[in-house]
Design brief:
Strand content: 35-45%
Shape: globular
Distance between the termini: 12 Å
Oligomer: single chain
CATH topology: Glucose Permease (Domain IIA)
Largest sheet: 8 strands, antiparallel
Low-confidence stretches: 1-5
Number of domains: 1
Helix content: under 10%
Radius of gyration: 14 Å
Order of helices and strands: EEHEEEEEEEEHEEEE
Strand order of the largest sheet: 9-5-6-7-11-3-2-13
């Protein structure tokens, strides 16, 4: 996000809910950190916010995932739910487009967690840094978080 605090850069919670370790995600691609490291949030409301200031570089056509390149160079993947690609966009409303610059806390999407859970999918949502080779001193925070307000990751480049 570009806020310097004790030399660390910050990533905010993308959703309100409970932040958990990425290793707790019930999907080996995330739990084994195949794509990168970070946290996951078990959401308590439908709003999905930008965890950093940057440019939207990818939106899955099924709306279950969004990629953001931060102003400071960090690459973030926000993945909404597990196996939700199978929903083909049902339960998701996108509010941004590729190429758009967003500030940390701007609304990216709405995720109808009740509808997604009713269809049998888990709503736990990973937020990971995909360019870990460029990252040092990653610090992770777990527990209750507020989307767009609580810092869930700190790092140095």
């Amino acid at each position: 996000m570009g806020l310097f605090s004790k030399g660390n850069l910050k990533v905010m919670a993308q959703q309100t809910g409970e932040a958990v370790a990425i290793t707790d995600v019930p999907d080996p691609v995330f739990a084994e950190k195949v794509l990168g490291d970070g946290i996951a949030i078990i959401p308590s409301n439908n709003e999905v916010l930008s965890p950093i200031s940057g440019t939207i570089v990818q939106i899955a056509h099924t709306l279950h995932a969004i990629g953001i390149e931060g102003d400071e160079g960090v690459e973030i993947l926000v993945h909404l739910g597990i196996d939700t690609v199978r929903l083909n966009g049902d339960g998701f409303t996108c509010h941004v487009e590729v190429g758009q610059h967003v500030a940390a806390g701007d609304k990216l999407m709405d995720m109808d967690i009740a509808a997604i859970e009713a269809k049998g999918y888990k709503t736990i949502s990973p937020c990971i840094i995909t360019n870990m080779d460029d990252i040092r001193n990653l610090g992770l925070e777990i527990g209750n978080v507020t989307g767009g307000q609580t810092t869930v990751m700190t790092y140095k480049k």
